[in-house]
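Bug #77: duplicate submission created two jobs. Keeping one. Sequence:
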Amino acid sequence: MPFAIYSLPALLAAIACFAGFFVLDLLVKRGRTKAFDIRGITSLRLPDGTPRLGMGWAPVMRMLTQLGGPVLRYAIALPLAGWLYTQGYAPNALWLVAALASGWLIDGVVKKVFKRERPTVVPHLAQAGGPSFPSGHTLNASLVYCGLALACAPLLGAWLVPAVIGGVAISFAVAFSRVWLGVHWPTDIAAGWLLGTGWWTGAFALGGAMLGG
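Kept job's structure:
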């Protein structure tokens, strides 16, 4: 298939997301977001560091955050890609795997370049390691769940848009859980969402014709 732009709106959305990410990256590097980040993460806690909603919500938030974790997201995405391949939707399966793999790689590269430390102003309520910027859980949640919807476009028909909206909603829930658990700054999740959304919209713009949706 020759190189072509399949969806101009998707391409413009990708450009806007990447531009937003780079602006946010610049602001974080210059320390312009420090007060916002501290206010955002501490607003969810009481003075003693416990969540305002109560510790009873911790299991719920840990469950939500796992939707963006590597085990669960790939346990969902890879079998579905395999199923699409066996059902005659090989281009869709290959597009999905390529989008997820490239997104995972870009997340790792950006984290190593930025090397931002995780928040220490509140106690962590979940295990988290590695650099903080951007939020890999948020990035991959947006990429995986919206990418799954696009890969299944021929099967979803009129349900494609609701499925994409559902993917966005899942990514928002994962993002909120990361700040609630105290393992990411608000700008980490914003950067993760912008980068992840820019990645899948860009992948759709440049390779969407092969999805047949």
